[in-house]
Amino acid sequence: MEAPVSSSLSKITEHMAVVGSDGQHVGTVDKVEGNRIKLTKSDDPDGTGQHHHFLSAEMVSQIEGGAVRLNVPANEAKKAAMGSGAA
User: Fold this and answer.
1) Closest-CA residue to 43 (of 33, 56, 30)
2) Is domain 5-82 classified as CATH 1.10.10.60?
3) In the prediction, which pLDDT does 84 show?
């Protein structure tokens, strides 16, 4: 039985690695804003380092070993983050 998303979000801390279900790197947590994970500018999925991207909390599968593991592969997560609007 999986923990509710809100419970998982409370365990996410600044600078945690975010990895896809395939184990590939997606980005680094800046902070949690509402029901979204804000990724750092310096490690953003489009590689420009110019702005933040966001991932939906619904993508979080588990928090383990100091990392946020998603329920989608890294490629899919990066596409979703880049389509989420940059800040």
Assistant:
1) 30
2) no
3) 60
